[in-house]
Amino acid sequence: QVQLVESGGGLVQAGGSLRLSCVVSPRTFSNNAMAWFRQAPGKEREFVATINWNGGRTDYALSVKGRFTISRDNAKSTVYLQMNSLKPEDTAVYYCAQRLGPFIATNINDYNYWGQGTQVTVSS
Questions:
Q1: How far apart are alpha carbons 78 and 86 in whole angstroms?
Q2: In this predicted model, what pLDDT tens digit does every residue of 3-40 receive, in sequence order?
Q3: Rounded distance, CA 76 to CA 62, Å?
Q4: Of the N and C termini of the chain, which has fewer Cβ atoms inside 10 Å?
């Protein structure tokens, strides 16, 4: 059974930073692409960032490009999301996701496994 466990969320003031982590079942991690999505209250879940199997390629939503950085450590079976210059509109539950394939993808339907989510709240 694939498990994804997020951590690192919390309350931060606008302009601040947070780093999210997602630990994944080791056996399934190193060959597959990973992503972060987020869901604000009353809104649909949306794509934030994706990274390919070896970290060599990434892609970001326009709303976070230049502020967020996705990375991975295959030795630790962990994917990260460094979030800088946070804005109140970044407030959401952030979800880690894994797809069964090595290449990046931005469509929510391309992902097979999901974590339980971690809350990020940015105050103005």
A1: 22
A2: 999 999 999 999 999 999 999 987 889 999 999 999 99
A3: 29
A4: N
CB 87 within 8 A of CB 106: no
The three state secondary structure string of 84-116 is: CCCCHHHCEEEEEEECCCCCCCCCHHHCCEECC
Q: Which of 104, 80, 96, 73 is nearest to 2 (CA)?
A: 96
- The average pLDDT across 41-49 equals 97
What is the pLDDT, as a whole number, of residue 26? 76
Q: Please list the alpha-helical segments (H only) found in the chain.
A: 26-29
Q: Where are the beta strands (DSSP E) in the chain?
A: 4-7, 10-13, 18-24, 34-39, 46-51, 58-60, 68-73, 78-83, 92-98, 113-114, 118-123
Distance between CA atoms of residues 95 and 48, nearest Å = 9
* Look-up of token digits 């946070």: 86
Integer distance in angstroms from the first to the last C-alpha of the chain? Answer: 40
Listed in sequence order, the residues at least 6 apart from 10 whose beta carbon sits closer than 8 Å to its beta carbon are: 18, 119, 120, 121
The region, left, alpha or beta by phi > 0 then psi within -120 to 50, assigned to residue 8 is left
